[in-house]
Amino acid sequence: MMGPLNAALLGVVEGLTEYLPVSSTGHLILVGHYLGQDGEGAKSFEIVIQLGAILAVLIHYRGLLGARARGLFQRDAAALQLGLALLCGFVPTAVAGLLLRGLVKRWLFGPLPVAAALMVGGIVLIVSERMRARSSDQGLEGLEHVSPRRALWIGLGQCVSLWPGSSRSMCTILAAQLTGLSTATAAEFSFLLALPTLGAATVYEAWKGRHELFLPALGAELAIGLFVSFVVAWAVVAGFIHYLRRHSLAPFGYYRIVVGALVLWLLR
Hints:
By secondary structure, the chain is an all-alpha fold. The protein is built from 13 helices and no strands. The radius of gyration is 18 Å and the shape is globular.
């Protein structure tokens, strides 16, 4: 049984980690494992509560998204470019996810693969931040610089995040930085790219796991997880960009290494 307390705890974990470069899926797998929530229904539950994080981005960026949606009908250049960029960023992950979903769930949804991805990703993040600190070019600021070509590279980077523990946020931010975008702009585009990416994954998993998820006994827990993840994710989205304009991502790298090492120690 999931239970309201476990559902709320998983909602907190999802909301805290979805948009930070620490891997929400990895944390949910680890927390779910130690709570005894390891079945197929639990895996689908962990993915479907991403809807709360999606709603947080929709609410936070409602002004920008509303303006861009109206601009699409008016054939506004900025709106068309952002829409095409989101499509270019989404398609590679959608294709890879459909092709590799079974293999990922079978072989990578476990504490050991997650711990490995956390530690390797932490090292990559620290090295990347040190290299950026030595550079005078901190990247282009503003979503208008996210061209479809840049977005395609970001989408290819996002494919790496299919490995739980690697972090969709980290992969997209690092890929965006490599294309010449600033860290803050990279994070903003990562938030927006989460809408089609997480939205598609949520709908797919909800359908595949509908028999387990929508049982009356689990309905209340699903609602709790969604609501908690929404509230927590909104707070994270509101504060993360502000943080990135003044600080680096290196602390998240050290955090990843510590968590990964702790998991390996617990698995001895």
